[in-house]
Amino acid sequence: MTARLMGAEAAAPPEHRGLALDGVRLMAVRPGEIVETTFRDLPELLEPGDLVVVNTSATLPARLDVRRADGTPAPLHVSTSLDDGDWVVELRRPDNDGPDRGGEPGAVLDLPGGVRLRLVEGFPEPARASRLWRARPDPWVPAADALRRYGTPIRYGYLSAPVPLTDAQNVYATEPGSAENASAGRPFTDRLLVPLLSRGVPVVPVVLHAGVSSPELHEPPAPERYRVPEVTARLVDATRRAGSRVVAVGTTVTRALETATGEDGATCPAAGWTDLVLGPDRPARAVTGLLTGLHAPDASHLLLLEAVAGRDLVDEAYARAAAGEYLWHEFGDTMLFLPYGCQEWSASSGAAAGGACGVGRRGSRSPAVPSAAANPTTTLSHRCTTDPAAGDWEVTTYSPGQVSAPSGGPSGSGCASATPAFWATCCARRISRPTTPGTTTGSADRLLLSASMPQPGPCRRCRSSPHSGSDGCVSASGRRCPPAAVPARPPAGAGRRCTAARTAAGRAGSTTPDG
Q: What is the pTM of this model?
């Protein structure tokens, strides 16, 4: 992993710094392009048909002030409660500057309300020393009840003052259970969700109750309780089959969705405990976009970002953030990774070559796509992301005769389909699906080619054939179809069935509760 610098730390919520909740900075990161804007502009960065998935877990006041057997006061962070009623806790040093690793099995802590908490064994591995402990209260009391009565929000040293629990909640949070705020979604507001939905970008829920953050270098996350509802699983699969993006709001959403997604690419309804860790050995299968906060550069959960966006894109974004004085941590600024799409195309034999691709870029046009029909010596080459996590690219070359002349558009650009082995689509909001190889489709910002897509068929919107048109699809009867979304990579899981709920997956990288 490339060494990363860290910018300034956000010492208070943005509304305490004179900003609106959705006024934090947002860096949109695509291959070949970084756009710096504010979070309230998020709807303009997504396309109709994209799907946004949020974590509706609400934050508990998960810090308790306890007293050790020798009378020393100390903070205790309650990470979660287990199915048998035991608690998972992190004992902190008295000055709260880190976890206290000096605890031993059998140690007893005095809690408010006359409850005594006994440390039983390490968690999640009993025989291995850990900052987390399985603990048992006497008399028994549900952890959530004790926290609601005596707890305060978890607070780390970079915060200048305590924050109320209301500042640690997302606008859509409904189900209490997280030790810390799923903060990637904190900048969402009612006034932001409305234009997002009206743009044709659905917002759907998952639940993952986030435990305490992972401050240790390369420390994997502990198991966390999650649920992916049936409607969310269906919409994730449908969005990917349509070629649109599944944008996870935070690493908690990514962990939940990827736990519910099998090797066949199908996302199924699922619930239980997940110990999935994403990284180089387990890249993302369902998530094709990620909205996230900024985290310490030595945090192991950055491997999850690389599992979605690829190391190069993450390194580029963090270098820009450090140089641009972006703010880190849960009350800081945000990033939107959109890793899939066309990177570049070129044409040989004297034809003009295009610059960096702007899939989904508003208000921009690429140079005209060279026509093989007009210039039979032209060879088109296309370079598109297929696996950003592995740094892989797909390069497709079209020899003379394989690509037909593009139709004219507002900017003179166009899209052309190719032989039956390939499927060409127009980027951005204009798309047509050719009925036969060799026909042309409407004008667009960029030609996007994908090898391993299905054989072209009737228009996916009106189901009629033949069709044509430079802005969307016009059927043989003259009916104009609404434009479809852009397939940025071959969808996986089409036509697959979920045979059983998936409750966990193997270990391979890391995440912490940034959302």
A: 0.72
